[in-house]
Amino acid sequence: MSTNALKAAATGGAVTRTNEKPKTLDQLLASPKIKAQMALALPRHMTADRLARIATTEIRKVPKLATCDQVSFLGAIMQCAQLGLEPGGALGHAYLLPFDKRQKVNGRWETVATEAQLIIGYRGMIDLARRSGQILSISARTVYQNDKFSYAYGLEETLEHVPNETGNRGDLTHVYAVARLKDGGVQFEVMSRADVEKVRAMSKAGSNGPWVDHFDEMAKKTVIRRLFKYLPVSIELQQAVVLDEKAEAGIAQDNGAALTGEYSVVDDTPPPSLANDEINPDELLSGFVEAANVAKTVEELDAVYAAVAAPLASHYDVLQQVTDIHGTP
Q1: Which stretches are transmembrane (predicted)?
Q2: What pLDDT does 133 receive?
Q3: Structurally, how many domains does the chain consist of?
Q4: Bridge partners of 192?
């Protein structure tokens, strides 16, 4: 077995089969191996079946997602799983959008691939912030022309907002976010409509997707993201902000890195037995050591050991070395 195949065993990935026709994204999402990877990353309140169904629904709502590079799409789904966020507009946690990757070809800009990008919604940002344990509450509000609104920074910071509930509130003028910390402190950030529009203008997705369909929510997310600079946040939230900033700037998120194991086309048929391969004990030993180094759990290490133990049965000296490394008595 190759070192790459052993690494795939170590991380729960599928053995690559490049001679098979790629499946559709719908089929890949239904794959037990993809669902198994999702399940490993998901928090307790979510299931792999639910995430797969939601992702399939998003493909039907945004047909261009079906044309996305499969690794980028599955990687974006895996990022959702790792962050514990549901994609789609139902909760407003996150959105999956297709982005055309353009490069110069013979002096002309051409679309060379379509990749899926993960955009975090403001409710997703709030959900992640609350998980840090240091933030008691965080909220964002939009301000309109006919509301009563004032704020001041400095030694005596103040913020007052009284919405006009008796008539037309007018156009959106400001957006603000407030966080109450566990130690009793309060932080807030205010942005004008012009400030938000500047951020939108720099976004690759500024003319479509959530910026068009859910402008108020994107404005709230923008001010929340700015507020995060002054708050104690978790690693997951930092990761979400980085992903979101890349999506806004049109920079590749490298979502494929979220997939474990080697991936090109997932195949649900079992790989051929090692017993049928030509056994090279030294190569298997070297591959085992390298794959063992990337195994993150005892179960993953056991999977690698099981993959090499049987074919090494007739090579006792090498098997003993593998057993010693594995720690099996």
Answers
A1: none
A2: 80
A3: 3
A4: 174
Instruction: Kindly state whether residues 106 and 138 are assigned to the same domain.
Output: no
* Amino acid symbol at 56: T
Measured CA to CA, the distance from residue 115 to residue 97 in angstroms comes to: 8
Please state, in angstroms and rounded to a whole number, the distance separating the CA atoms of residues 312 and 302.
15
Q: Which domain holds residue 322?
A: 274-326
* Cβ atoms 307, 6 nearer than 8 A: yes
Q: What is the mean pLDDT of residues 202-225?
A: 82
Sequence letter at residue 301:
L
Cα separation, 221 vs 202, whole angstroms: 15
Contact in structure between 41 and 322 (CB atoms under 8 Å): no
Joined tokens for residue 15? 């053995």
Give the C-alpha separation, 208 to 188, whole Å. 29
Which residue type sits at 108? R
**Residue 125 domain-assigned?**
no
Between strands 148-152 and 158-162, the pairing is: antiparallel
Q: Please determine, for residue 328, whether its predicted confidence score (pLDDT) is greater than 60.
A: no
Asked if 287 and 308 touch (Cβ cutoff 8 Å), the reply is yes
Question: What are the tokens at 169?
Answer: 């509130």
What pLDDT sits at residue 121? Answer: 81
CA distances from 197 to 97, 118, 317 (A): 20, 21, 68
d(CA 139, CA 122): 9
**Cα gap 195→193, rounded to integer Å:** 5
Q: Quick: pLDDT tens for 165-175.
A: 888 899 999 99
Instruction: Indicate whether 218 and 237 sit together in one domain.
Output: no
Strand partners, 120: 94
